[in-house]
Amino acid sequence: MKDSGTLKELLLESGIPLLSDGAMGTELHARGISINACFDALNLANPELVFQIHSDYLRAGSDLLQTNTFGANRYKLAQHGLEKDLKRINQQGVTIARQAAQLVPKKVYILGDVGPLGVRLAPYGRVQPEQARRAFLEQIEALLEAGVDGIILETFSDLNEIQEAIYAVKALSSLPLIASMTFTRDDVTLLGDTPAQVARQLHALGVDVIGVNCSGGPAQVWRILRQMRQALATSADLLQPFSAMPNAGWPEQVGGRIMYPANAEYFGEYALAFCEAGARVVGGCCGTTPAHIAAMRAALDGQAAGCAPSVSELSMPVELEEAKPEREPPSHLARKLAEGKFVISVEMDPPRGLSTHKLLAGASLLSEAGADVINVADSPMARMRMSPWAVCELIQRTFGIETILHFPTRGRNLLRVQGDLLAAHALGIRNVFVVMGDPTAIGDYPNAMDNYDLVPSGLIKLIKEHLNAGFDQAGAELGQPTQFFVGCALNLVPPDFGQEAKNLQRKLNAGADFILTQPVFQPQRAADFLRFYQDRYGELSTPILVGVLPLYSLRHALFLHNEVPGIQIQEETLERMRRAGERAPQEGVHIALELIEQMRSWASGIYLMPAFHRYDIAAEIIETCRDLT
User: Fold this and answer.
1) How many other C-beta atoms can be found within 10 angstroms of the C-beta atom of residue 79?
2) Domain annotation for the chain: domains and CATH numbers
3) DSSP summary character for residue 329
């Protein structure tokens, strides 16, 4: 970075972008501050800690420091009884950053950091636009009086709210203004605006830098940045600068702590990608540390000739496929399967009544044991149970572990199928397992309607070709595409290999992403089926999670063998259960582990189905599998 020139001039130059700092909030938490504390108030209560974090980022190579004032507005401060200290907190935040900047031998620019108000604006909330603007004016005026070099509006998800903040900045100052929005996993804002819509509106409002921050990891931010730049790739808009400040990946809960998976080296690689995509400011958001910023500094410094795109490259028309690179995997399950990891999925049944205590206790045990994903059945055996959508959402929200929603076509017409899927998506469910479902004649309500408009292959095609493309079956736009990862069913030991292979091929042609199988007790016959399929249709590359059902007793084994269609248990296995006597449950575990080992060479994972809700047995199998891996 040049040591002379105004910040606004530097933002318009080509070449190496300015390097901002990384996270403040997650760094404060990592250094002992409670996640429920008012981080902004530390400007008064613990200025030494804030100073230390600023200093660490400067030593890592930052050109810009953002003040510790992200939530220092009247609404958020009022939650802590600190609204009367608003001016002092904001101005002290500037003072601390300026003091840190004076200790390094280069020009450092201070950005006054302003975040969302933490309240909803009308028509989605009670706060009127003029009230929001007054709140922004109050905070921004305090920052300007303290001597910031520019303002950054970051992590906004509502275009109407950031518009009021922009109006407030422009009413008070002509200093450089960065306006940055955050996006969901689906590459839209929380209120459904696309990167292109955001870019066009912020450009029309005359901000100096259009940004994307927070969101997911670097890959998503890079993808959104390209879409924003493409939306403005006309001769009049070529000089519009952008900024990119991603999280260190999507946060994951590990051992009760929130962890961010993206490491520093990964961020260094993306610093150059952001630069080549037109970013004039780069940095980090939640989960990033001084180490991430140091890696970005090293990568940028190694690019002495600059890496900004040329004018001709910016103005070149880009086909839709090129403007929207391939999306990240829609779920953790999809990512793990793509990376070749051995996945363990466990089935749970929804409760019969209102209480979810036992279900959550079981899900907690499975999560702690190391399950990757929990399957939630939909009215198994056609018996009335709680809706699986609610169970999936409850498990995901409580434990941070993904679920697979079982989605039968039986009993749903074309309207209900689509409405139910949209509802599931809105609840954060991304993995769905499409099946026909059990006939109502065998369940609690034998006279209940049993009709359906779609067979499983038809529903898979509807999801992949319509909903995941942003349209319903009739062709009407949904506003944004769904991001479902779709599974289909398979019997690996069918009586008729030809018919089962034909059915599977139909589902795969419709777009199925993964396969869940019925329980397998004859691994050699399952391998024979896979060879049969390969000879007829070619190599089966779709990931298979093979069904494993731990036997609990001889009676249980005999029932499965004699009364459950599609399950065949070898006489040798039945004899082992017979000899085990009271130790039958333990023998069932040994048999399950042996089956897993025999099928591990061709299976992408297992689909564990614990009998009689014995989640302790499932946990034992999971832990043993993990130890062996």
Assistant:
1) 11
2) 7-323 (3.20.20.330), 332-628 (3.20.20.220)
3) P
Tokens at residue 623, please? 């832990």
The span from the CA of 102 to the CA of 94, in Å, is 12
Query: Do residues 332 and 402 lie in contact, with contact meaning Cβ atoms separated by under 8 Å?
Result: yes
Contacts of residue 221, defined as CB under 8 A and 6 or more positions apart, other chains included, come to 212, 213, 215, 244, 245, 246, 270, 274
d(CA 501, CA 490): 9
Residues 443, 382: contact at Cβ < 8 Å?
A: yes
CA distances for 604 relative to 6, 346, 366, 374, 497, angstroms: 56, 14, 19, 16, 21
Q: Is the peptide bond before 123 cis (omega within 30 degrees of 0)?
A: yes
With beta carbons less than 8 A apart as the criterion, state whether 558 and 574 touch: yes
Mean of the pLDDT values across residues 3-15? 75
Closest CA to 98 of 86, 113, 109: 109
pTM: 0.65
Bridge partners (DSSP) of residue 254 are: 257
Q: pLDDT class for 250, splitting at 50, 70, 90? A: low
Mean pLDDT, range 69-80, rounded to an integer = 97
- Tokens of residue 81, six digits: 């009884």
- Residue 122: predicted pLDDT: 84
* Residues whose CB falls within 8 Å of the CB of residue 259, separated by 6 or more in sequence, listed in order: 251, 252, 253, 287
Contact 406, 433 (CB under 8 A): yes
| Spatial distance between the Cα atoms of 275 and 280, rounded to a whole number of angstroms | 7
Residues 6+ apart with CB under 8 A from 162: 153, 156, 179, 181, 202
Contact 247, 208 (CB under 8 A): no
DSSP state of 471: B
For 491, half-sphere exposure in the C-beta direction (CA atoms, 13 angstrom radius) is 16
From residue 176, alpha-carbon distances to 200, 279, 280 in Å are: 19, 15, 13
Within 311-387, where are the H helices?
Answer: 311-315, 320-323, 332-338, 357-369
